Structure formats: C-alpha cells, structure tokens
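Sequence in, structure out.
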Amino acid sequence: MDLDKIFDELFPICRSITGEGIRTSLNILSEHIPLEVRSIKTGTKVFDWEVPKEWSLNRARLISPSGKIVVDSKNNNLHVVNFSESFNGEIDLEHLKEHIHTIPELPAAIPYVTSYYQKRWGLCMSHHEFKKLEPGTYRVIIDTEKKDGHLNYGICELPGNTEENFIISTYLCHPSMANNELSGPLAMLHIYKQLSLIKNRKFNYRFIVVPETIGSISYLATDQTATKDIAGGIVLTCLGGKKEKLSFKLSRRDWLGQPSEVDLLARYLANKNPEEYSIREFTPTGGSDERQYCSPKINLPVIQAAKLFYGEYKEYHTSLDTKDLMGIKSVIDSSEGILKLLKLFELKRNELFTDFKRVEPHGRQEKKINSTIQGGEPQLSKYDLYPSLNSPMTFKHSNDGVEDGRTQLEYILNILSLSDGSKDVAALAKKLETSIDNIVPLIDLLEKKGLINIT
C-alpha cells in the first residue's frame, strides 16, 4: 500500500463536514479498505445537533483595484472560509479587511478558518500578502453552494472470533492539510492492513471515518450497534511529526477513577517504554472525537492516539501543515506503535496491569448534577456559549463576545463532561481544582440554558 501516493490523491481535495469533497475522499479510501459509505439526510436531528446542508466551493477570487488577482482558491482552497456564503460584489479595502483572516504571528501561513453554523463570507491569506493590499475598491467573487443533501461517513468491519468490538476511528473533513487531516486516515489504512494479516483475531475491529464532531455524533445517534459490546477503542489524530513520542490520551473513565482495560494498557506501555510512549489525561476541552465517544451518556472506553499535537505546533490549522512536516514514515511509525497496543489488547493478559490498581468510584452525594443531552457534546454555539468562527486565532482570543481564552469555555466543557449524575457542586469543584464560587455561576448558566438539571 503506497501511502505516499494516496496522500497525493487526497491532499488537493476541498473537503468540509459535508459535500462532494468528503464523498470523493471516502471513495479513494474505499479503494484500499472495504468501507461502506453511509448517508444521513440534511436536517436529521442527531442528539443536540442537526445535520447541516452540503457545502461546495466552485471558485473564489479577490481582484485588486488595478485588476490583479490577489487571491485565487485554485491555488489553495484554504483561501476561502470553509462553509462560506457566496458573495459577488465590489467593496472598499477598509470594509474588505473585516472579511479577511490572517495570522500576524505566522505571516507566511494561510489560516484555516471555518464558519459551519453561522452565515458569513470570508477569505484567508498570508499576512505578508495582506500587508501589500493597495487602497481602493476590490472585486470579490466567492462562488459556493449550500443545498440539502447528506452527511457521509465510512465504516468497515474486520471480524474476529467474539462478539466484542474494538473501535478505530478517525476523521476526514479538513481541506488541504497534512498532519491534522490525513495522518489519521493514512494510519488507519496501515493498521487495517496489518490487523487483516492476523489469524484468529479475538475482537471485531470497527473502522470508522467521519467528519469530525458532527460525524461521530451522527454515527452514535443513528447506528443502534454503535455502543454495543465495545471492549475498547482509539481515535487517530495528528500522528505525524518526526521527533515526538506517540502519546495516548486516556478515556473519561480513567479521568473519573474507573480506568478501562485500554486505559490500563496505555499506562503500562508508557511505563515500560517511556522513550516511545507518553500519557495524557482525559480532558473534554480539546482533542478529537474521543470527546463524543466519551461523552457522559455514551462513556465508551475510547482513548486517543496523537504525536505532533493539535494546537501545539505553530503550523496547526494553516497552509504550512504539509507532507514534509507530517512525514509519511512518521505516520507508519505511529501506526506500528498503535499496533503494539492492539496486539497486547488481543492477548487480554491481566498480569500486564498489576502495577495499576483500579480506583473505586466516588460515593454518590445529594443534589447531583446531570446532563440533559442524550449523547455527544451539546452544540454550544446555538446556546451562545461557543465562538461561531473557528480559526487558529481563537485559541488565543475569541469572537462573538465568548471568552475562548480557555477560561469560561474550559470550565463549561469540563462541567458538562462531569455532569453524569454522580457529583454535586462540591465534588465538581474538587475535581476541577477550583473553588465552588468559580463554578456556581456557570452551573446556574448551564441550568438556565437547559443543558443540565440538578436533582
């Protein structure tokens, strides 16, 4: 299997969470793994979310007062805000600047910016080119389309000898980026090929390729077998990087003091091979689809594997996230590291875990806080609790008046993940290592929004 060639086929495609780009990408993967491509109609209610319309980009251009094409999506599809509305008209430079996104701290990079759930149009460009814009009137031509259609995802079963299932999930929804987009699907292909060579597999391996967040939520909400007989699982993300260790982010069960076998095995590997592996504790405030698989009403034993970590390298969510940065060999190395964990999990040898004692769950208390969401995370943006525009810059500051400096938002996400009916306010404050005074206003806010109840 030539992962280098597959990368080159996938990289230029303008993907989003819905639309032809993801279907084309899933079809390419289907040439190498027997994926069943599934469809969920626009408007379908999936837990607290709704499947959005399909979005496609035809072409976008920005033409200067002197007639020069300054931005052209043919050169890089990151030049357009993902899910941007169409726009065709003239606009002066001062007003145009309100619709252009750059990263001043990384002036050579084109940022990846999304606006899935609020209507707006926008362009992205390097800050170097932005500073060269001449005064005057510009022509903006953004040709996009939104229509009723489907959300698509892929699923493949590699059968074993028991009814227990192991989930291997990754996402495919970003446009032309390498580590943050294609390292997961490429690793999945390598893992599938190697597992298919194992005779007498114990577990059924379920490979899932979804648009991030809305895809895993849609899968969990619509597939009646999604949570049945799950022995463990792993989410693949950001597996490139030439020097970093392979890191396992543990599941929510471990976070609550009730580690699953896959948590214990991840700890075992990191303890025995610290030069190869490291451990990260579960958090609901960042990461990938493990947040949905581990959400309170789902709570599956699903961990995450990553190497060159999302949000922690300067090229993240920019045009500088390239094949060279990612490294095909690094993805293969990460895949082999994950295969070590899977092969040990196949053995289910309890003696591996003797160094890691299970922690008894906390006792139940009065006035328990419970989430009203039946699965996955709530769609915080529709409650005015999350920025409607997502870009590399929202890791440092926010828009819409929402505090996204990882203060209020992080507390909210943590509170929601802990709201499983087992904790009162004091227990929440203790777990979050903060005072009750800090979280009571947020609990009141979440209760008013209908996201939690206190009984």
